[in-house]
Structure formats: structure tokens, C-alpha cells
């Protein structure tokens, strides 16, 4: 089973392909998702990569603080999303 990795501090110019290319140096990448704003389609500056457990651990150690597109990445194991109360408009 794969492990989900949080990748923060992404440049707005970073693409899913550039993130995939960086992480593939440490093993097979199962999926990459750069999170975008629903209204503008612009990157929100973070995303998620899924890899097998051993490759994920190696990638986290190697890439936390690494440079991608001029930004120092924040890389760690993704935590489950915390439940939030529904928005009220």
C-alpha cells in the first residue's frame, strides 16, 4: 500500500510533472496532485505525492528543504484531513 506525502511551499509555477520528476529519483510515484484554487485554477502552493512506504521515507528525508523552482520544499508524511464544521454563508 502507498504512503501519502505532503509537499508544501510549492512555487505557483511548479507542475504535477515537475513534482513527479523530482520524487521519481527516490522510487516509483503512484500519483501526484497539486492542489489548485477552485475559482482561479491557480496552484495553492501545496500538493500530495503517493509512493510505496520505503520510497516515501527516503524521499521525505532527502527532499525536505530541497529546492524546486526556487522554493525550499516542506516535505513530510501527510496526515488525515481534520474535520471542520461546514461553512455558513
From TrEMBL:
<feature type="domain" description="RRM">
    <location>
        <begin position="3"/>
        <end position="80"/>
    </location>
</feature>
<dbReference type="InterPro" id="IPR012677">
    <property type="entry name" value="Nucleotide-bd_a/b_plait_sf"/>
</dbReference>
<keyword id="KW-0694">RNA-binding</keyword>
<dbReference type="Pfam" id="PF00076">
    <property type="entry name" value="RRM_1"/>
</dbReference>
<dbReference type="InterPro" id="IPR052462">
    <property type="entry name" value="SLIRP/GR-RBP-like"/>
</dbReference>
<dbReference type="InterPro" id="IPR000504">
    <property type="entry name" value="RRM_dom"/>
</dbReference>
<protein>
    <submittedName>
        <fullName>RNP-1 like RNA-binding protein</fullName>
    </submittedName>
</protein>
<dbReference type="GO" id="GO:0003723">
    <property type="term" value="F:RNA binding"/>
</dbReference>
<dbReference type="InterPro" id="IPR048289">
    <property type="entry name" value="RRM2_NsCP33-like"/>
</dbReference>
<dbReference type="InterPro" id="IPR035979">
    <property type="entry name" value="RBD_domain_sf"/>
</dbReference>
